[in-house]
Amino acid sequence: MEESTQPDQPVIEIKDLHKSFGDLHVLRGVDLVLNKGENVVVLGRSGTGKSVLIKIIVALLKQDKGSCVVLGEEVSTLNEKELRNLRLKIGFSFQNSALYDSMTVRENLEFPLVRNVANLTRAEINEQIESVLDAVGLLQTINQVPSELSGGQRKRIGIARTLILKPEIMLYDEPTAGLDPITCLEINQLINEVKEKYHTSSIIITHDLTCARETGDRIAMLFDGQFLKQGTFEEVFDTDEERIKSFYDYNFIQ
Ligand SMILES: Nc1ncnc2c1ncn2[C@@H]1O[C@H](COP(=O)(O)OP(=O)(O)O)[C@@H](O)[C@H]1O
Ligand SMILES: [Mg+2]
Fold this sequence. Notes:
By secondary structure, the protein is α/β, with parallel strands linked by helices. Helix content is 38%, strand content 25%. The site of adenosine-5'-diphosphate has 11 residues, from strand 2 and helix 1.
């Protein structure tokens, strides 16, 4: 039986999160909930602490104050072994997550699989690689190397590489950065397909308003270290708040 979406079951709960680097107080009391089956977009200008936030979620950085509970566990208290187990349930597609250039697409996908899942047969490995490539629409590239693919295709393979471990949570850091407008639309569509096919809950970090509108069930606007407003795209941008209006105008004029 297929699992139904449970909208109010939190998979990530962040409360009053603070993070500074020396005198730079980047996060100043961030509150955010990601519910099961939801796509939440974190919008904000460059340098506002979006990447810092997702690094805290996967415990690559530690908060100074506040709590960050992921799949029921406070990440800052986990030991290395517990962290490894938690990270297996989180797929992160970081800004510059590169593929191995000397490996084929098949080998790039096989690598995380055999490294993290014990005792798979050759047939199971092949089946999982083909299934995830099919899901991102790139089965035909299986024997190619990354340099033969377009930027958008490489991005898709990067996403496939995280999906192959069947994560419960996906974290996308600037998924459309540096891509042309048509490819951006394809990636937005893929993010939505991943949610449907893999039943993931996702945080999508971006300053791309089209990406936010297309993929976000909910948008959270980061300003000066706090979420200024959260809601649907329309709820967030139908406002007289000057900082939100200027963000909208600036980003859609570009
Ligand atoms: N490890 C670090 N050490 C010092 N400063 C950092 C570190 N990581 C991020 N910063 C600073 O924190 C601010 C927010 O960074 P970041 O989260 O990467 O912004 P963005 O919203 O563009 O993703 C920036 O000013 C950045 O220089
Ligand atoms: Mg960033």
